[in-house]
Amino acid sequence: MNKVRRLISKIRRGQATTEFMLALPIMMIMLVGVIELARLVQAWLAVENAARFGARYAVTGDFDTTYCEDANLALGWPTDVYDGYNGDPIDCIVPRGADPINYLERTSMLVDWARLPSIRDAALSGSAGAMIDDDATYSDPGYMDIVTCSYPSNLTETDYNQDPIAPPQCNPVDDPGDPGNPVRITVFHNHSLIIPFLGPGWPHITIVGTREMIVETFRSPRVMGAPMPLLTATLPATNTSTPYLTETPWGGFPTSTETPLFNTNTPTITQTPSPTPTINPACIGLEFANDWQLISNGDEKLLTIEVSNDTDAKVTLDHALFLWENYSMYVPYQNVKEIKFEDKKIFSGHDYTSPTSTGWGVYEDLDVNETKTFRVKFDVKDGPWSETDYQPGDFGAILTFMNGCVIEKPVTIHDRPTVTPTPQGAECTGIEYVNDWQLISNDNEKLLSIDVMNSTGSDVKLMDAVFYWGNFDAVSPWQAVKEIKFDKDKILGVKDYDSPTYTGGNENRTLKNDETKTFLVKFEVKDGPWENTDFTPGDFGVRLEFDNGCSLFKPVTVTDRPTVTPTPPIQPGPEGVIWYYGYMNTYVWAKVEWHTNPDGSITTRVTFSRTFVDNTYGENAIGWPSGHTFGDLSGSDHVRIAFKGMDRATYFDAKFDYITGAGTCYSSLGVTGGDGKLYLGDVADVLETRSSLVENLCVLGCKETSNSPPTDENYTPSAECPGWDYYVWYEMTLDASAFEPVGFGYPLLTEIHASPSKTGMNSEPVGPGAPTPVNSPTPTPTEYICSDC
């Protein structure tokens, strides 16, 4: 009996083992399937999140200024000619003085270029969890692409549920979108699979995420690629040099008094005559067939003009630009609602500023012997056309066709008188400004505030606001409105660089009866606090629109601001000194001095203020609330300089490394390593590079990298290492052949960099300014002991 029981027990154990082995593959498949499904859901969420992040960033109009340099290069504009004019920071904002007619269009083109990679960065920041391979192509696992499209662009037709046959793209080009237009962010990702039996035949699944939003009103629309009339700045033939400062020399530089640094003549802008255009025979017969027709239609005001094609071939409209500055100046709260070419809508949104661009890629045909109507819609905000004195000559248009033909209907009225504010209506009785603008300086911001009171007997709602700051904008064209609040409610949260600033409408903020609220505007401290300027309350204005029909206007009263004189160009020469100050933090400065050596080479030294960065670190760091280490200075700091010729063109442009190395092997790697980089020129033209920290370690022999020699807030010389230079400076010597045939002119800074810095900004924009006293200690050269390199 026991033998039988043992036999049955063995049979049962064998059966259980067999059943387990049969079930194991199914269990493993289910387990791996659950894991694969979880990975797929995670990847899908990451792609959806990336599209959402990208779209939310795109609608703000914001961008990363680190892409502005690439934007200038992509558009073929030297940074010092437009964006960096007269030392202005490279921030995609073209100063008025660089191109008085086209500076807004150039700014829009730079901003649009910089917005695209900035949107991509924002989308990537939301893609955490996706397995991305930066080196993958569009048919490989791990590939991710982000496409930014805006009306009237469109995505190419492809079945994106399978492997993409070709890389996804926006037709005709990626477009971040104008204010009021929809922008669509589409994220494509090839999610790699781990299930073995799917094998190489199905290595990944393509996941697509899309988000579409309306671009906020952050500026006037751009004009991408439109031909622009350019002005050429012509300097006077003679220059009057002014003694600038008497400076104590530093090692290797001759004593120089009354050094001519700046040209004191104000440049004059001379219109360069345009050559007589040669008419393309293919464009003869393509024209505007009549003048503007001003039509009032219910709640809309229309402008129409006919375009006829009497050429021998069909043409296709690619881009349209509508000009209405006379009207926008008179009625600053008016806006273009829509533009149509016959029945095709080519612009949709609310554009409050002239000119209005449709964007490129309209693609609307005009057949041979066909006539179509170009139609613009406005709201009836100031009554029908019959109640105004506008004429066809107040408006213009430029149409560009795919075959290269351009037809223009120019504005012919240029003598509109100064706008007289419309008197407040009965609707505003009981709604009033109870004080004047208050100019408040607060840490890193400049504030403007004004109080509004409602005593009408009932609640009202603020629906729209327009802020006028043209006087300030003209003096500080790099300045921007950061934020606008109505009491505690934020009604504008994106930067606007041009006056007037519109909050966008539909604010819907309640102002109760017998309540007073503050209208608050924030600027950055880019030109110092208010007390360092001469601006007064009369330099600013505001219009608040309420739901009861009240348009409460506070006009600008200072109308005699003198025309801004452009900063004089730096005077080129064989030697000189230039002082730069920070635009945003005026206590930051940099000193640039140069001289020509006997062999013709040019040595330049750049010294940063110790309020920005210094050579203190470890336990002996001075003025670093969050601490400062030797590693913060090594391998990550640089100075970028554009070296000009006598013709003021850039001949050499590079970032110079501060210090790189380890142990006893330290040096400045110049433009070839560390944080150095060559943008323009030949590396062979760099004859020598030095820096103050390398000198401290390798000349003085104070090789302590944990803690710098102890000092105090006055940077008293240390007894542990006499001669330690607490200033951060860079020195480079360039061969004269780099500037042939014109010869060396001068070095130019647009920003200073330290990562980290004491200001909290790694890169600080700077411009030529008044001298700041500094006595840079000169180390005494000894044996160079960093010999392990």
Please outline what is shown here:
The chain is α+β, with helices and mostly antiparallel strands and 789 residues long. 14% of the residues lie in helices and 31% in strands. The protein folds into four domains: 34-206, no CATH class; 283-409, Immunoglobulin-like, CATH 2.60.40; 429-554, Immunoglobulin-like; 576-768, no CATH class.
The figure for the number of domains is: 4
Mean pLDDT: 77
Distance between the termini: 89 Å
Give the number of DSSP strands: 44
Stretches where pLDDT is under 50 for at least 5 consecutive residues are: 157-165, 219-278, 418-423, 563-568, 770-789
Strand fraction equals 25-35%
Alpha-carbon Rg, integer: 33 Å
Quaternary structure: single chain
Sheet with the most strands? 7 strands, antiparallel
Strand order of the largest sheet: 40-41-34-33-32-44-43
Derived from helix and strand composition plus strand pairing, the structural class reads alpha+beta
